[in-house]
Amino acid sequence: MMNEAIQAKSLTLGYGDSIIIDELNLSIPKGEITVFIGGNGCGKSTLLRSMARLLKPESGSVLLAGKEIAKLPTKEVARNLSILPQTPIAPEGLTVLQLVKQGRFPYQSWLKQWSNEDEEIVMRALKATRMVEFKDRPVDELSGGQRQRAWIAMTLAQDTEVILLDEPTTYLDMTHQIEILDLLFELNEQENRTIVMVLHDLNLACRYAHNIVAIRDKKVYAQGTPESVISCQMVRDVFDMDCQVSMDPLFGTPLCIPHGKGRCILKGGEINAI
């Protein structure tokens, strides 16, 4: 039985003459949450796009459930894998319900029109994201967190085993970040969905990921559990930053405390930097 949802084999990606990912090999475990981390411009989003067949490799291949994704019919890919890009934009006036229904397009054909099953899946996606009460609201009138939940509802309506998300918490406040990540965690726990996402917050990545992939110098620098990947040396090498790694008091996962300038406090009769 195959344990990899997606594999990259000797994958080289680029734009024009610029190589972003070079001869990269990677396996994404099935039924787990995998998070890509790395500095700006290291190729995290580029790698995610290639896994969704949105970017053609310069060389190498991406396998989806053991099959080369480039050779699969578009609808077959869309029935097995969905992607939520950074800051997606909906047409003006499009309602939440209309947006979420678009997730069912890969299942439509001349022979198979809109069905009760499609309707049930759309409503289930709206309920899972707590967006039922907003279904008739235009997407462009929603708050940032509500808008992101609407897009995730559309992704859920696509009903794929693998979900790719590029920085799903960007521009969201702390409350909405946790709300979105909790939702994705529940989808993984309850429905065994394979979740792959790019995150910038290392501490949130450690809390939610089974598997962390650190990208540096166009290749995988390290891959594994948060405990095996997150270290002072890794943060120094990948992010060019000094830090202290401690334990999250609530979750027991690695907690990265960056060095830097900040306020000072009086502690034990001595002044200490926070």
Helix-strand blueprint:
Elements (H helix, E strand, L loop, with lengths): L3 E12 L2 E12 L3 E5 L6 H8 L7 E6 L2 E2 L5 H7 E4 L11 H6 L14 H13 L15 H14 L4 E5 L7 H18 L2 E5 L3 H7 L2 E6 L2 E6 L1 H4 L2 H8 L3 E5 L6 E5 L5 E4 L2 E4 L1
Parallel strand pairs: 3-8, 3-9, 6-7, 7-8
Antiparallel strand pairs: 1-2, 1-4, 4-5, 9-10, 11-12, 13-14
How would you explain this protein's 3D organization?
The protein is an alpha/beta fold. It has one domain: Rossmann fold. The protein has 9 helices and 14 strands. It has helices spanning 44-51, 74-80, 96-101, 116-128, 144-157, 174-191, 202-208, 226-229, 232-239, and strands spanning 4-15, 18-29, 33-37, 59-64, 67-68, 81-84, 162-166, 194-198, 211-216, 219-224, 243-247, 254-258, 264-267, 270-273. The strands form 4 sheets. Strands 6-7-8-3-9-10 form a 6-stranded mixed sheet, sandwiched between helices. Strands 2-1-4-5 form a 4-stranded antiparallel sheet, covered by helices on one side. Helix 4 runs antiparallel to helix 5. The longest helix has 18 residues, at 174-191. The mean pLDDT is 91.
Our count of domains comes out at 1
If strands are numbered along the chain, what order do they take across the biggest sheet? 6-7-8-3-9-10
Q: Helical proportion?
A: 25-40%
Spatial extent as radius of gyration: 20 Å
User: Mind telling me which CATH architecture this is?
Assistant: 3-Layer(aba) Sandwich
CATH class: Alpha Beta
Number of helices: 9
Question: What is the approximate shape?
Answer: globular
GO biological process, one term: iron ion transport
Pfam family, one: ABC_tran
GO molecular function, one term: ATP hydrolysis activity
Keywords: ATP-binding, Cell membrane, Ion transport, Iron, Iron transport, Membrane, Nucleotide-binding, Transport
